[in-house]
Amino acid sequence: MKKPLTIITSYYPPEIGAASNRIYQLANGLQGDFSVTVLTPLPNYPEGKIFKEFKGRLKDYSEKDGISVRRLWILPSNSKNKVIRLMSMISYSLSLLIYFLFNSIPKTVIIQSPPLLVAFTSVFFLRSKKRKLVLNISDLWPDAGLDLGAFQKNLFFKLLKKMESFIYRNAQLVLGQSQEILDQVVKITTRPKVLLYRNYPQLPKTQHLVRESTNNSKPLRLVYAGLLGVAQGIVALCNELSFQNIEFHIYGSGPETNEIESLLQNNPDLPIFYHGSLDRETLHGELIKYDLAIIPLVKRIYGSVPSKIFEMASLGLPVLYFGGGEGENIVLENNLGWVISPKDYEGLNRIINSAVKNEFKNIDRKMIRHTFELKFNNETQLNRLKEALG
């Protein structure tokens, strides 16, 4: 008989993006050995509005792919206003609290963080000597918020740091998306076991997704796919690219969507093309048409390793990594593309121009895919996780 296991997350399909994909893949990988229940808000990300098919509901319970999905009420928002975003997280935390009071919670619970407030609420009310709490940390909050300028070192920041310390000290196992995350946890407390658990995507089903390298078509086609948020800085990127023999194609949605659409309306001659959001499988089929993927961050964020590095490697697509830190080392050590310091737009344009002229032809896309298969194996790390869960 399968052991029951609950995953608490703020993001889950049909929402798109790395966060929801990460948790779905985790739940799907564990459901063969565990009876998995996912607690998540009614779908609203990244638009900040409840999806049409879920509007008017306070909750929704369903089962898909052998996973029980329990969607709870939330006051949705993608506002840049900190107070409004906080109210949204509080609303979901209250829904979780009500659920905890009236439902049986299994002995093994995986809690996604950030959002830190949701993780704190879950750990505070579920901590027990009889229960195994597992934290799945994808970014170091509140420090990442400090790096991005979202927080200042004030009383509120100190409160968030106390929350961070509390959840680490009351967990039995911490999963970190990066080694830097695990290093930070160990500095705070050595109580929980730690396990490096990166967001490796499952290999695409069809091998034809990897096409031969080419440098014959001009202009070079550069692509970005993901969240259009402040941390990624796609609007600034559009304004800084030199556009000498290149096209820039954008997929995704988020807080900067309207600014991007306005920029294109006001500058129709720019070789920038916004394609909106696509489901994951369709997106992969589109991405292989491009020559080079860009993965930008406006600042080096300690602990952050964008999952797009591994997703593009699974497609054999070379990358321009524009974010520094541990992600930069992964790209360089595995010959996945080029790296540029955050906001070094002059260096970015220089590398793109070099790629257009001659350097790009030396990129072997099949070798990138082979590196992914060899070094970024999701099944191997999933088996390590199952052993740790017991």
Number of helices: 14
Span between termini: 14 Å
Gyration radius, in Å: 21 Å
Oligomer status: single chain
- Name the CATH homologous superfamily of the largest domain: Glycogen Phosphorylase B
Helix content: 25-40%
Which sequence of SSEs, written as H and E, runs from N to C? Answer: EHEEEHEHEHHEHEEHEHEHEHEHEHHH
| Overall number of structural domains | 2
Uncertain runs are: none
CATH architecture of the largest domain: 3-Layer(aba) Sandwich
Structural class: alpha/beta
Give a short synopsis of this structure:
The chain is of the alpha/beta class and 390 residues long.
Tell me what the structure shows.
The chain has about 400 residues and is α/β, with parallel strands linked by helices. The chain has two domains: about 5-200 and about 375-390, 3-Layer(aba) Sandwich (Rossmann fold), CATH 3.40.50.2000; about 205-375, Glycogen Phosphorylase B (Rossmann fold, 3-Layer(aba) Sandwich), CATH 3.40.50. The protein is about 40% helix and about 20% strand. It contains 14 helices and 14 strands. An eight-stranded mixed β-sheet has the order 3-4-2-1-5-6-7-8, sandwiched between helices. A six-stranded parallel β-sheet has the order 11-10-9-12-13-14, with helices on both faces. Strand 12 (about 290-295), helix 10 and strand 13 form a beta-alpha-beta unit. Helix 2 packs parallel to helix 3. The mean pLDDT is about 90.
